[in-house]
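Issue: copy button drops trailing tokens. Both records pasted manually instead:
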Amino acid sequence: MWQLLILVSVILLIFLITRINTKSKRILDNPDEGIGFVKCESCGINVPETQAVKIEGSWYCSKEHMN
């Protein structure tokens, strides 16, 4: 009886570990698909489009870098 319980526990543990690894790989493969990143013309860092400032076709990370 104990052997069956241990066998079921090991199978369940392997299933859970495999599922966690698969889920984390999917997250790493497609992080935030909907967010686009742009490069600041002044300092060159990448900033999400939602936080960047666009002036005359150029992207900047902040208002201070527009000068």
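Record 2 (pasted manually too):
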Amino acid sequence: MALITCRDVSLGYESHAILEHLSFQVDAGDYLCVVGENGSGKSTLMRTVLGLQRALAGEIRFGDGMRQNEIGYLPQQTAIQRDFPATVWEIALSGCQARAGRRAFYSKADKALAEQSLSRMGMADYRSRCYRQLSGGQQQRVLLARALCATGKLLLLDEPVAGLDPKVTAEMYALIEGLNREGVTIVMISHDIAAALRFATHILHVGSRVFFGTAADYRESPLGRRFIAMEEGEGA
């Protein structure tokens, strides 16, 4: 069943459209990678799905009991955010804010969920550490734990391996793949086309031309072949 359905959606700012007439859906259990050139609207799409900005036109619907405030989100970090003076525990627990609603405190269930999420990410032993003292890979694990506190269904990940070394990148991809195998639906923006084709069930390519379909079909499509060759050429 579809968790997200986008129909004829146009995205942008004020009256300036970045993407127009975009249609796709994300089903439960999918691993969707969103690819495309820089500035093509990938992050704008995520912010629109999250309700952080409005679509200029079209419709975004949620199904299978999915609610917008139940989406787990891992955004790209700024330098200021990497230096945030909070503990690992405080960062992870803050992912339960949407569940807390108007409550002025976190419940036992919230705290248990935060503990579980940190354990799943291998960060339980770091719960008292200051977030800004962690390595980049450890910070991403904590943010992934935070995102898991918000959802049991759907994660939106915006370049989760950006700036990480190859070993830590491989570890992050393994963690994300493991979550998908456990039933968490993944929507991930990626510039790593090789990884996208390796892990994703579906590809959404946005830009002047749009493709939505299986990773296998994207690999064989004219747009996919052209973009893959371009990315491989730049990485050579």
